[in-house]
Specification:
The complex is a heterodimer of chains A (99) and B (181).
Chain A: E1 15-16, H1 18-25, H2 29-36, H3 40-47, H4 55-65, H5 69-72, E2 73-74, H6 81-86
Antiparallel strand pairs in A: 1-2
Helix pairs in contact in A: 2-3
Chain B: H1 9-14, H2 16-43, H3 48-65, H4 79-89, H5 91-101, H6 105-139, H7 144-170
Helix pairs in contact in B: 2-3, 2-7, 3-7, 4-5, 6-7
The chains are: A mainly alpha (99), B mainly alpha (181).
Chain lengths: 99, 181
């Protein structure tokens, strides 16, 4: 899976959670591409951060996942969505698996 | 950008290495053919063979490499072709083929960039040719009689295939099934 939440942002200079969200919902690249009316290869490029989507495509993704655009794309590395939602930093948990 | 919906051709063109071989074979054919055409023009012996080969080159270009706006190495969506896909692979594959032929926003951007780069190269080519023409006119006026046809032949050959060549050469490997790489 092309995780582009941390590390290098790819050619687009953007970080994104598309791969994580897609895996979480069990959606294939082809399914997502069909829903958005793009080629499945474009989903791969988006996930790797090698392509900056148009506003239309970004809002399409936002609508598809039911999340705001800033929850999917960021110019800075993205942390786990759960940590953002609950306001807890997972690295502070010491890997004990509890809040 | 790389069309992969076809059962047989899809996995083949998905690999950049194969595409580069195809580009090599294409230009390996185009260069001698252009040289031959140019040679005939230079020798002022237009023949039926010359016309036949020139027409074959044009058809090859138009239906495989150079439909402006479509993907490289993807034949034109002729009716018979669509019917064959429907017959052999079913209606589902036909829908996939149609979707594969449409360019999305990234592919359109990529295509435009390839055309821009190709025409940039051609501008330098044309300028070089113009310089050569000026020099040849000064040194040997008879040369200018054949440099025009030669320039046109080479320009057409390059113009038709260059954007698609750039795309086929540069696009990375893709997974033809659409699943994870």
């Amino acid at each position: 899976m092309a995780d582009n939440t941390k590390g290098a942002p790819g050619e687009s200079g953007l970080y994104n959670r598309i791969a994580v969200l897609r895996a979480e919902r069990g959606v294939s690249r082809q399914d997502l591409a069909d829903a958005l009316g793009v080629n499945y290869q474009t989903i791969g490029f988006l996930e790797r951060g090698d392509y900056s989507p148009s506003l239309k495509l970004a809002f399409g993704l936002s609508e598809y996942f039911g999340l705001p655009v800033e929850a999917i794309f960021s110019t800075r590395p993205l942390g786990p969505l759960s940590a953002q939602v609950y306001g807890v930093r997972t690295e502070n948990l010491g890997g004990k698996g509890h809040a | 950008m790389i069309p992969t919906s076809r059962a047989m051709a899809g996995p083949f063109v998905a690999k950049r290495r194969n595409r580069r071989w195809m580009v090599g074979i294409y230009w390996g054919m185009m260069v001698p053919l252009t040289a031959f055409v140019v040679g005939r023009v230079f020798a002022r012996q237009p023949s039926e063979w010359f016309m036949l080969i020139a027409a074959a080159v044009m058809v090859l270009n138009l239906f495989t490499l150079s439909r402006l706006g479509t993907k490289p190495f993807f034949p034109a969506p002729m009716l018979i072709d669509r019917e064959m896909v429907a017959f052999w692979n079913g209606k589902e594959d036909l829908a996939r083929l149609d979707a594969d032929l449409r360019l999305d926003e990234r592919e359109t951007q990529l295509r435009d960039r390839a055309h821009f780069r190709a025409y940039g190269i051609l501008v330098w080519f044309a300028l070089g040719w113009f310089g050569m023409l000026c020099v040849s006119r000064m040194l040997e006026p008879a040369w200018s009689a054949w440099t025009g046809p030669v320039f046109l032949s080479v320009l057409i050959a390059v113009l038709l295939g260059l954007p698609q060549t750039l795309l086929a050469w540069n696009e990375p490997d893709v997974n033809p099934t659409g699943e994870e790489e």
